[in-house]
Each structure stands twice: as C-alpha cells, then as structure tokens.
Amino acid sequence: MSRNPLEFSLSSRMIKPNRWLNQDWLVLFLVISLVSFGLMMIYSASGSMEMVLRQGIFAVIGIVFMIYLSFSNYQRLLPIYLNVFWIGIFFLLVVLVIPSDAATRRWIDLGIFGFQPSELMRCVLTISAAAFLSRNPRIVFRDWIIVIGVSFFSFYLVFIQPDLGTAIMVLISGILPVLISGFPVSYQIIGIIIILLSTPFIWMNLLDYQKQRVLTFFDPGSDPLGTGWNIIQSQIAVGSGSLFGKGFLQGTQSQLNFIPESHTDFIFAVVAEEFGLFGVLGLFLVYLLLTFRLVMIAKNSNFLFVKLVAGSFIFLLLTYVAFNTAMVVGILPVVGMPLPFLSQGGTALIINMIMIGIILSFRKAA
Amino acid sequence: MKKFFSGKRDSESRKLVLYLILPIFIMFVVLLQTINLTVINGKKYETQSENNRIVSRTIYPTRGLIYDTEDKLLVENIASSQLNLIPERSTDTLKKIKEIADLLNLEKSFLLDIYERQIKKPRYPFQPITLAKSLNDEQIALFSVSSEKYKGFSVETGLVRSVVNKKSLAHVLGYMGYSESNDENKSSNFISGNQIGISGIEKTYHDQLSGKVGTRIEEKDVSGKFVRVLSENNAESGKDLKLSIDLDLQNFLIPFFEGQKGALVALEPKSGLIKAMISSPAYDPNIFNSSSSLAEIQSIFNDDQGPLFNRATMGNYPPASTIKPILGLAALDEGIVDWNTIIQDDGEFYVEGDPRPYRGWKEDGHGKVDLEKAIVESSDVYFYSTAYDLTIKKLESFLKKFGFGGKTNIDAEESNGLVPNEKWKLGYIGEFWFKGDSINLGIGQGYMLSTPIQISQSIAVIANRGEIIKPRLVEEIDESPTELKSLGKINLKDETNWEKIEKSMIEVINSPNGTANNIKDSRYVIAGKTGTAQIKSYEDQEYEDIRENPFFRDHALFVGYAPIPNPELLILVIIENGESGSRVAAPIAKAGFDYYLTKNE
C-alpha cells in the first residue's frame, strides 16, 4: 500500500473501513510537533536537560493515551464518561484534605511527579456534562441546572486551592456544554448579571497576590520591580525579538532569567524572543490549523455528545492559547494559565493530549 | 444506549464556530500587540533588553611607579577602601550623600563637591564615581550595616597613590586630583573618575604613568551576577619612571631649609640630570592623593607660605650677582671690556646728567677693579658701568641666549622669568626705558626676574663651555633611558673666555677676598658665585631700617659647581630673606658638594 493514507481515507469509501488507515494523521503530526517544539523551548528557557527529560516522559505517556483513545469506540465508553467526573471531584477533595506545608494545595505528590487534579477536572467535567445532557433525546431544564450546579461546585473546589485561572477554566468547561446544547439566551443574560453582581464577593475572597496581579495589569509601571516585573520583562522579551527573533538559545531575556516562569506560563515570551514575530505567526497558524481539523471532525458528526465534547474541548484549547499569550504580551492580567502543549507541566500536557485523543475517536468511521 | 443517538445538529455546529470567534479574536489582538512590541517599539525594547544584561566596566590600569636614581621607591599604589557611587542606580542622590557623610563622619561639602564635579563629566554608563578614599574599618562597618538603604553606593577596594617619603619630594613628584576643566578629558588616556596628575612629575608624565584605560563589556543575569565577558579591551599598565633625583642627597639637604623659605637645584651639568630639587616649605602630597578631609586640603591651599608652589622652577627671583659671570662674558664678547680693563670703584656710580648715585654693596668700593676682581669681590660699580655701556639691546639678547626670560624645557612646570626691554617696560609699566634700568640689570636687579632652574642652567652653560643641555628629572622610562638633549651652543668670539670666567668663579671661593671664601675646601675645587637679591628698593631709606621687616630682607643666593675640572654637580641655593649669599646660601651648597662628592668613596 504505497498510497498516501490521508488521500486513501478520503477516497476509499468502497473498501471496508480500516481504523488505522482512517486516522487523522495531520492532527497527530501537529500535536506531536507542538509538544516537540515545547521541549525545545523548555530547554531554552530552563537550560535543564533533566526538566526536558521529565516533560518528554509525560509527552510519551500523553501520546500513548492520545493514540489509544483515538482508536476507542466512544459510544461504548459513554456510561463511563457519564460518571467520570466523580473521579475528578474525588481528587479535588483529596488535594484539599491531605496535609501540606505549601501555601497552595494544587498538587498531589506522587513521589517522582506531582499530579494536578484541577487539570483532570476540566476534562472530565466536560465529558460527564456532555454525556449527561445528551443521554435523552430532549434536554430538560433541570439537566442544565444540575450541570451548572456541579460546575460551580467544581469551580469552588479549585478556587479555594487557590487557583483562580484554572478555576475559571473548570467552570467554563462545565458551562460550555450547557451553552452549546441550547441554554436559552434569556437565562444566559440572567447568568451574566448574577456573575457581575457576585464579582465584588469574588474580589473580596481573592488573596492579596491575586488582587495585586489584577491591579498590576492595569498599571505595570506602578511597581516595576514587584508584580509589574513579569509583564515588563516579558514585553521586553517579545519586543526585542523583533521580526525574526534572536535565534534558538540566543534569547538574552530568557537565557539570563529575566523572564520569570519562562518554562511554564511565560514560555510564549521565549518563543517570541527567540523566533520573533514570524515565529509567533507560525505558532498561531499551527494552533488554528489544529483547531480547524478538530472542528471538521465535530462538524461531520450528528451526535449531540460529540458536538458538546468537541466544541467544549476546542474552545477551551484555543481559549488557553488566547489567554496565555494575551497575558504574556500584557493585554490581560497575569493568571496561572499554561500554553497548551508547550508549557512545562505533566498533568496539563497529558490531559490536553487525552482531550485530542477523545476528539479523534469521534471521527467518522467512513 | 441507542438513546444517545440524535439527528443532524447544525445549530450546535454554528454555535461552536461562533464561540470560537472569541479566542480567535483575542489571538488576533495578541498578534497586533506583538507587532506593536516588535515592529513599532522594537528599538526601544531591544535597548531595554541590552540594558538589562550588559554592564560596561572600565578597567583602570595600574599607574606606573616612580623610583629615584638608585631605584629607591618614591611613589607607589596602595590598596584603599573607597566609597563609590553609580549614579544610574541611585535615586535622591544629593540627600543620600549628605546622609552617608553624617553616617561616616565625612565632610558633606567635600563629598558634594566631588560629586557635583564628577557628575558633569563624560562617563561610561554605570561607571562609578569615587566619593571618598581611605575609609577606615569603622567607616566600612558603619556603611555596610546600612548599605541596603543606599542603592548605588558601595565600598570597594581601589588603588591610591602614595608618596613614600611624604614631604621630601613633594614638588618634584606632585599630586593627584580631579581635573577642573572638561577639556582635559579629551585626552585619549583620560576618563573621568580616574584621577589625573595635577602637578609635578605626576602631571608632566601623566600619559606615560597612567597607561591605557581598558573596557570590558560583561553580561549579567537577572540577579546581577556576572555571566561572561562579551568583549574586552585590555588595559595597559602605566610605565615606571626612574628619576635622576638622588633621594639621599635630597634628604640630606632638606634639613638646611627647616623653617626657611627657599629653593635648591642640584644637577649634573654634563647630562642635565637633576639630582636634588627642593622647594621650601613643602606639603604632603598624600593629603591630596587619598585624604577625604576638605579642611586638611584647604589648610594647604590657604597657607600663605605657599607650600604648593614649586619655587625651584616657578619662583621668580632677581638673579642678583649670580648674573655677573654671564654679563662679564657679554661685555668681553661685545668688546666693551677685556680682561685688563680697569674700572675705578669708589662705591658709587653716576650717569651723565643724573645726580643720583648708583650705590654698590660695599660702601667704600673695591678700588681699581678688573673683570676677575669684579667677579671675585662682586663689584657692583664695575657691572653698572659695563651694563651701561652694553645697552639694553645687547644685554637682553645675551641673557636670552643663556636661557633667561624663557623656558629651560625641564620636564616640570616652570615659569618664564623676565628679561625686560624697552617695549616690555612701555607696555607693562607705561614708562620709557631709562639708562638706570640697564644699570640695575648689570647686577641682576631691577625688573629682571629668573627662576632657580634658569640661574642653574645659565651657570651650567659655563661649566659646559657653551653647550646648553636640557635639564631633566626623569632618567629612565620603563628602563629605557631618556635622551640627553642639547638645546644649542653659545659660541664666543674668544672661546678661552669660558675657562677664564670659570677661573674667576673659582677665585670667588679660593681667593681670600672672594665672597665665598668661607666655603673653600682643600680636597676639591669649586667654581661659584654668590648673590644677594634686594627685594625692596631703598633709595631714601637705609637697609638697616628696612630689614626690621623680615619679609623685606634680601634673598641669599649661591650657585656653584664642583669639582673642577670635571664638574659632577652644580648646586644653586636661594634662601628667601636670608640676607647673605656667602654666609647663608653658600654653606648649604658646600654641604651638598661634600655629601655628594664623598658619598661613593
């Protein structure tokens, strides 16, 4: 079989479907490319081969999960998907009760690596919500309220860790299936009003450093050596990268540690500094191409469950990209949100790849 | 599980794409912002990123050391703790300087003065300014306790100039300081912050001593820690100097000047090498090199004895009778007199049509005087007469040939002295030249002024039989000898006159009537001439009244060289208000000859 498998998958309707050949190789290629590029960037940012190896191990685990799930039969897994959020809730509770001397309780220490339940939550909440909402041909209003209730509960569990950025993303991952499945517009408006009214309450419950981050966003120069430092230094990194960048491992801002968190939340600053405006453009095109392919998979399916899961996952993925990069270039406040596939962090990487694998399992078996 | 199946779901697909517009829009804005940062403000951020990481350091070369002729160390560089300030890192600097001055018990005005002077000068970015030197342990401790409050200030180790023998060679060596004018900064070797030589050898040989300033561009990381050297421009150490000064001779002669104002020049006539140079009173150059006390410095500046002033090269004195051998040669060369010409000296000289007498120093005169006797006994009347006959024109040209009224080209700061003429007098005094002015010139008085080095040089010309050798203080620069340089030769119509005039000068010491007979020595032969410079005109007063004021007393001079026939050393001594060349000045020179000529025996 010397023909291009991709071409084959489009033209071989007469042949008995072969799941292997039917694979969306482009999506796999794009994801693996992004992860590999991420490993390069982590090396550039940290200069630590050990960190690259650790992330590489997570990447391999993630790729195995992704490919395995992409061949799975999602319809058979639906009963599991419906209840999988309990696992998320369980771990979120575990992380809150296990004793820890750290100020924040985001991690479960598994010895060689840490596990971040909030990352798992934003994946399983969407899946369970979608499965719950599509279990009957018609959605009744009570279903939406239940999903919204569970979402806010999950949000609260992450919020008190505390991790505002991920908490918001967890909330969105639960609310999105509700919105996509046709939650009435009038109720959406009421919801927005309720959220706006509760803002002061949320503000009061923010920790000082969280408040400071939001305030600094509005005036980075006010405290150039304190919280504003991150934004100023990452803007310097991006700006000094110019059109083509300073070259791999040549970014002075990142190599000399002027960018804080350069291998995690601010890895985009390293990309921009070392590869310039065109590097940023290229990275965005890869994310958009990936999005486009995933949207096509969702669009070609007639199942509500597929639409809800794929729609939510794609939206979350792209929102992470948008918010993370917006934060790095200083147009949104600094909240802890990693750049998908690039930022160092094992749980997020594996979860993101699991999400891609699940979407891939939705592709039409011709 | 069939109930999960559902029909075609276009509305969900539309919603899905609709929601994606939000993140895509944000990404679009991110892209615009990236363009804004890179393309529109790229230059600004490039500069900021460079400023983040790059430190330019000035590497000051080690200043050359200075030795005496026997390789005794005269000036060295010693480590000292100094208070540095990097103005770029500091805010509210003036206030902080005042606080630190209080804290370290330093003088506020001194620190502020240095700061204000240095801040105006061109500097590399982040180049430190040294505000105070030679901090003691207590000051260092006091500063380090509260150093966090004073960003940009630091105590660092630096080198300061240290003169080993303090006062004894102050004027020869000079001192270091901050230049007053910005123009000097243009000199390629000089970058502000580094001190420059303000006087003496430190000034004259500043370029050789200072070497070349290097720069090193370093990369630092976010914590300010050194990462690597990006480029380096090596500093070149300054060259060491070996002076011709004989420290032993210098130190031997200095006590003679204790409590007196005056100057001494001792040089080797055939080479022009200066063996000793004294200007009294002196000062301690280390006060300028390293002190942080304005009061100490000001007390030197305000001392009316003028300790900073190098009398040996810059003091303007009437040469008085020490000029007589030169004028004798002039009169001989111009045919005014010969060795047999006799002039009657009755103690006074009159000009035709002028009833005013020109009195000689000896009231009754010296009787019948020929040129030799006129020099030996220092007859004023003889030289009144010859100067009168020579006229100012010839006097002036002859004196200038011997180096009066101009630079001797010694490697030190020197003044020109003054050989007056008609034009000068009209311009500066506003009067015509009187014959009396020429007559006064005959005994080295009147308007004429000369520096000790000029007088020494004029007599050295006699010792060298007309050869004018450039006087110099530096014998070797980095082990390579400086050149012996002839500045010309004076030719006499009768060259034997050199020897004859020298013989008269020998008789000044050897003849029982000689004015310096008191220093006669049986072991070696000295040729010399005394002088007593009148500094206050006393036409209507007697000297006995004038000398009541010690500042109006005559200066005592002696210049001589020994041993004849191969002179090794020429010594000139001036003691201000010392009154008698023979009794006060000549014995000092004699002591110098004794010491120097017997030193290596």
Please characterize this protein's 3D structure.
The complex is a heterodimer of chains A (366) and B (601). Helix content of chain A is 68%, strand content 1%. In chain A, helix 2 (25-46) packs antiparallel against helix 3 (49-70), helix 5 packs antiparallel against helix 6 and helix 6 (117-133) runs parallel beside helix 15. The model of chain A is unreliable at 1-16 (pLDDT under 50). In chain A, strand 1 (108-109) and strand 2 (114-115) form a beta hairpin. The longest helix of chain A has 33 residues, at 267-299. Chain A has a domain at 77-206. Chain A is globular, with a radius of gyration of 21 Å. Chain A is an all-alpha fold and 366 residues long. Chain A contains 15 helices and two strands. With 601 residues, chain B is of the alpha+beta class. Chain B folds into three domains: 2-53; 55-243, Penicillin-binding protein 2a (Domain 2) (Alpha-Beta Complex); 247-286 and 310-599, DD-peptidase/beta-lactamase superfamily (Beta-lactamase, 3-Layer(aba) Sandwich), CATH 3.40.710. Chain B has 21 helices and 23 strands. In chain B, helix 13 (324-333) runs antiparallel to helix 19. The longest helix of chain B has 31 residues, at 10-40. Chain B is elongated. Residues 1-6 and 183-193 of chain B have low confidence and may be disordered. The chains are: A mainly alpha (366), B alpha+beta (601). Chains A and B meet through helix 4, helix 8, helix 11, helix 13 and helix 14 of A and helix 1 and helix 2 of B.
CATH fold assignment of the largest domain in chain B: Beta-lactamase
- Total strands of chain A: 2
Determine the number of helices of chain B (DSSP H or I, runs of at least 4 residues). Answer: 21
Derived structural class of chain B = alpha+beta
Strand content of chain B: 15-25%
Beta-strand residue fraction of chain A: under 5%
Query: What is the CATH class of the largest domain in chain B?
Result: Alpha Beta
Distance between the termini of chain A: 19 Å
Strand order of the largest sheet of chain A: 1-2
Taking Cα atoms only, what radius of gyration of chain B do you get, to the nearest Å? 35 Å
* CATH architectural type of the largest domain in chain B: 3-Layer(aba) Sandwich
Q: Tell me the overall shape of chain B.
A: elongated
Uncertain stretches of chain A: 1-16
What series of H and E elements makes up the topology of chain A?
HHHHHEEHHHHHHHHHH
Total domains of chain B, how many? 3
Radius of gyration of chain A: 21 Å
Q: Biggest sheet of chain B, open or closed, and with what strands and sense? A: 7 strands, mixed
